[in-house]
Write a structure and sequence with these properties.
alpha+beta; Cytochrome p450; 3-stranded antiparallel sheet; P450 monooxygenase; Cyt_P450_sf
């Protein structure tokens, strides 16, 4: 008996070694840390380091634009060929420019599919959501039904709802956090907190017609953000060992997961979402033209809505909050940039081109320097750093790595390095590590110059994904940024409390910022220096596509 068990053990070990060796050599021609070829421990350590964005960028710069980070996974920072096409399709596209190539790779009929990595994004213990579906047909079906809800045409309250929450945000800062040193009143505000409160209340308002109440209470009434921080270790592990997500089906584990009956944390948010969804069904159903109503009109069931709305909350708030706070940080700590932005905004107000008390989205899209500041914020701190891994189709694909074609076998996962892409000096210039909005402004009318700016524009939009992998909430996010950046800076001076270390940061696919403390004082409206003239009724300011655009 003992001999038989020993023989079985040796046979299993031999099988494991054969598979490990085969997997190692299948991608051995791609550069990478040697451990990454044999084990996912290197990837786990990197994702748990709190600086995965920078470490992945170091890997791409050292080992190539597409490099190995796990036995069956690559990562790319190559804008031109983020996810290569199947061999049979490559020859017909060798002459395509990088933007067209990326579009075709993300197109509806592209053979590349979502990788197993997406399974880790399942938030509800029983149901998948639009971000966690690996099945392409299910993902496409739910995406088609949800897309109209994010468009301004059906969500008639969208802009008014955002304006309402922005006024609350500005009032909170004004009433509670403005310092008055001349009266010995010294206060600071943690920008990482209040920006999260703002975006969470925006997404709950536009989705459900009712806010969580973060801004009303100036705190986390559900303990949601603290609970999310506690869950980070699990998020990191599941992102590497996606097969472990299956343990959530075990009764004992399932009982310990957040549930809608919880009084605090993620479970409390699940309960809030469940209650708002239930209000839309039954004989006394509430009717309101908003996202939820658009989803219901297109056949989403009550169960699907409970899962999808939870995803809206988590995915739709954090990325926008990080983009907002980082853009405010870079502008407020760069006086020449701040002065130029304020001059543009004040000129617009003086000429009646900017509504008060809140700028309209269409008006913000006519301000070239504001749009440059927003795009530069998205570029230098891309809101999502997760791998978003796609899977190579059966039959494999050729990947161009710095001019050398290399073969990736079928079912290889290819993650994207958003930080590396957005800091590429070939696309953004030798000073790509510097926040400089002027790079987005066209310097002359030459074809070369227009091509330079177009290439940057096409690259920065990738931070929202593209095609069937694109972010449905892009329009809502850009509208929030268009309004909140300029309105905050028109009203307040923001002074970082510690320029040597302006905030603490942990990067786990998204940014966890803490202690982003600023001294806030009211800005005088009397300074009209540097006013610029906004010519014409309509300006091509190079704004990113928004909620009202396809």
């Amino acid at each position: 008996m003992l001999g038989a068990i020993l023989d079985l053990g040796l046979a299993l070990l031999a099988l494991y070694l054969v598979r490990a060796i085969r997997t190692y050599y299948s991608l051995s021609h791609f550069g990478g840390h040697w451990v990454a070829g044999w084990s996912r421990l290197w990837l786990l350590r990197t994702q748990g380091s709190g600086e995965m964005n920078r470490r992945f960028t170091e890997v791409n710069r050292k080992y190539g634009s597409t490099a190995r980070i796990a036995p069956g996974m690559l990562i790319t920072s190559d804008v031109c060929q983020s996810f290569s096409l199947p061999i049979k399709s490559i020859l017909s596209l060798l002459q395509s420019d990088f933007a067209e190539l990326f579009r075709r790779m993300s197109a509806v009929r592209s053979p590349f599919t979502r990788g197993r990595w997406y399974a880790a994004l399942k938030l509800h213990p029983d149901r998948d959501n639009i971000t966690s579906y690996v099945d392409e047909h299910k993902h496409a079906a739910i995406r088609t039904r949800m897309a109209p809800g994010y468009a301004g045409k059906e969500n008639v309250h969208l802009e008014a709802d955002i304006d309402e929450q922005l006024l609350k945000f500005l009032d909170l800062i004004s009433s509670k956090y403005v310092a008055q040193p001349e009266r010995d009143i010294f206060r600071t505000v943690d920008l990482s907190q209040v920006t999260s409160y703002f975006t969470l209340d925006v997404i709950s308002k536009v989705a459900f017609g009712q806010t969580f109440g973060f801004l009303d209470h100036d705190q986390d009434p559900f303990g949601y953000l603290a609970n999310l921080a506690q869950m980070l270790p699990a998020v990191i592990v599941f992102g590497v060992y996606t097969e472990l997500t299956n343990i959530m089906k075990l009764p004992a584990v399932k009982a310990a997961l957040p549930k809608s009956s919880d009084k605090r944390g993620l479970g409390r948010v699940m309960g809030f979402a469940r209650d708002r969804v239930q209000e839309r069904f039954g004989p006394k159903a509430i009717r309101r033209q908003d996202m939820l109503d658009a989803f219901i009109k297109r056949g989403l069931t009550q169960e699907e809505l409970e899962s999808e709305t939870l995803t809206q909350i988590t995915a739709g708030s954090d990325s926008t909050a990080s983009a907002l706070r980082m853009t405010l940080h870079f502008i407020s700590t760069s006086p020449p940039i701040l002065d130029r932005l304020l001059a543009e905004a004040r000129a617009g107000i003086e000429q009646g081109k900017i509504s008060r008390p809140i700028i309209q989205d269409a008006e913000a899209r006519q301000l070239p320097y504001l749009q440059a500041c927003i795009k530069e914020g998205l570029r230098i701190y891309p809101p999502v750093t997760g791998l978003m891994a796609k899977m190579v189709p059966e039959g494999g694909a050729m990947i161009d790595v710095d001019g050398v074609e290399k073969f990736a076998p079928g079912r290889t996962q290819i993650g994207w390095n958003s930080w590396g892409m957005m800091h590429d000096p070939v696309v953004f210039g030798a000073d790509a590590e510097i926040y400089r909005p002027e790079r987005w402004l066209v310097r002359d009318e030459s074809e070369k110059e227009s091509g330079r700016v177009a290439r940057m524009n096409e690259t920065v939009t990738l931070c929202f994904g593209y095609g069937r992998f694109g972010c449905l909430g892009r329009g809502v996010a850009t509208m929030e940024l268009n309004k909140a950046v300029v309105e905050t800076l028109l009203r307040f001076n923001l002074q970082s409390c510690n320029l040597a270390k302006p905030f603490d940061e942990k990067v786990v696919g998204f940014y966890v910022h803490t202690d982003m403390n600023f001294v806030v004082t009211e800005r005088s409206s009397g300074d009209q220096s540097g006013l610029v003239r906004l010519e014409g009724d309509k300006v091509d300011a190079g704004a990113l596509a928004g909620a009202y655009e396809e």
